């Protein structure tokens, strides 16, 4: 008896969208990832969209519930755009991300302009140091094993595409590595 004899299995219809389900879904996401209010809202909108479609319901009907859920996490202090922005910026800068690209990544995650500006003002990472970190991470310039001189201009261009000024990029690429680095 082949597979064709059996009727196609009917897709399982998910349980209804409830406040409890949405709260659990948000909590589960926040256990695994740091997030902003806007990002959590997008995540919940996608989850609701999938579940509502599977149930033949209109996802727009749950917009208010999504807002309430996000609001509860803000009240519980489990969602704080300012602290998210501070820790994300510190992480990006340690990796060698330029100020310009860091600001763009924070905005992409839904951090508002004022918060981005405030957090950037508190950043103490030197832009030249960040350029050096990126060069090291990507093995450019002084970290290149061969053809360093031939690839100098390409390496400088790579750092400039990453958001660094010509001065910072050239300084990071042209420097020599000191003992102990």
Question: Could you please describe the fold and organization of this structure?
Answer:
The protein is mainly alpha-helical and 181 residues long. It folds into three domains: 19-75, no CATH class; 81-121; 127-174. Helices cover 61% and strands 0% of the residues. It has nine helices and no strands. The chain has helices at residues 19-32, 37-55, 63-75, 81-95, 99-108, 113-121, 127-137, 152-161, 166-174. It starts with 18 loop residues before the first helix and ends in a 7-residue tail after the last helix.
| Average pLDDT level | 90
Approximate shape:
elongated
Structural class of the helices, strands and pairings? mainly alpha
Our measurement of the CA-to-CA distance between the termini, rounded to an integer number of angstroms, reads 69 Å
Give the % helix. Answer: 55-70%
Q: How many strands appear in the DSSP assignment?
A: 0
Low-confidence stretches: none
Largest sheet: none
Integer-rounded radius of gyration: 24 Å
Beta-strand portion reads: under 5%
- Tally of contiguous helical segments: 9
How many independent structural domains? 3
Query: What are the secondary-structure elements, in order, as H or E?
Result: HHHHHHHHH
